[in-house]
Amino acid sequence: MKTYEQGSLEVKEAIANAVFAILKEKPIEAIKVGEVSEKAYVGRTTFYRYYGMKSGLEEALYFALRRGWEKLGIEEKSPNCDEPFFLYLYTIRDRILLLQKNHLENLVDRLVLSVYGPKEDDENYYFRYIGAGMWIGAVHAMMAHDFQDSPKQIRFQMMLSFAKMAQENQNKKAS
Hints:
By secondary structure, this protein is mostly helical. The chain is built from nine helices and no strands. The protein has helices at residues 4-23, 33-40, 44-51, 56-71, 82-91, 93-101, 105-116, 125-144, 151-174.
């Protein structure tokens, strides 16, 4: 038997997936709560219960991104988080590019910050923001190239970039 919470997550997911489906056809400003509700097979009041006003459409999109990551069950502070997160971003690249097309990259940035940014009472506050910033930059580079490079190629380019930065830093210290 499902708990109320499990059912709520499924309903929120259905709504979020409906918003993504409609976003393929029209810009977010043109999406109506009624059509989202109809596509998700829920009442309008259910949409409003979970996402508030029409401005909740963006929140629904973010929920879908975050929920997809959470379903993988990866511990975010683990050093083994990078590869699964990278692959997750690559598997949802169509959604990410759709968000980019609709000028909603901030939702992808928010996802990266939720995974790599500082957590409550985090003593590595600056380090976590710097790491999140590098990931945001990498994701924006992937978007700029429409995810045409394979995950392996992108990882290789990232490693080359880090090596180049380290070498430049070493050269500055030497001069």
